Predict the 3D structure of the following.
Amino acid sequence: GQQLNQSPQSMFIQEGEDVSMNCTSSSIFNTWLWYKQDPGEGPVLLIALYKAGELTSNGRLTAQFGITRKDSFLNISASIPSDVGIYFCAGPVDISSGSARQLTFGSGTQLTVLP
Amino acid sequence: DAGVIQSPRHEVTEMGQEVTLRCKPISGHDYLFWYRQTMMRGLELLIYFNNNVPIDDSGMPEDRFSAKMPNASFSTLKIQPSEPRDSAVYFCASSFFNQPQHFGDGTRLSIL
């Protein structure tokens, strides 16, 4: 099956700094999703990408669907303490349809924001 | 709108006991997913349903695990008998058609 390699595994940054993380796939994807998981809670969808080259923002978060369709990037600008959590990329298991029904997840990036 | 609701939030039980986890998907969603999350293996899909019918249960670890969806608003994941290696956080998620999945807050299961 498809494998998603997410990096970095963890990040320690100062409040106010920008953050960048990425995800690469062994296969071409038609959909990329980014989720955030707060401690003790379930993953929450941040951004969904459906087209190669697409750049989508959600507040201070910006995600891009790589032009090769095998990667995606998530950037967080001017980090704040509530950005702490685990960020997951995800893509469809059924890559031919591109539907987001059945997902495979990256291993996550643990973000710590230092005051 | 209410999100995906899971119960219980925490469960601690002794090995050999039966464990039942419950999930209420978002109203109107036609897909329901059960995941297990551990430090070692991350988020793993166990089984998913479409319109209450199990579609793919290839992720279910072994026969001790079973899942049902008797109606559109309720699903259960059962482990019988439970073992310490089943300790994990179990998530339920739901979606409509091919839209992204929405997750519940999970059940943290500890088998002693």
User: Anything to note?
Assistant: The mean pLDDT of chain A is 91. The first strand of chain A starts at residue 4 and ends at 7. Residues 7 and 29 of chain A are 18 Å apart (CA to CA). DSSP finds no helices and eleven strands in chain A.
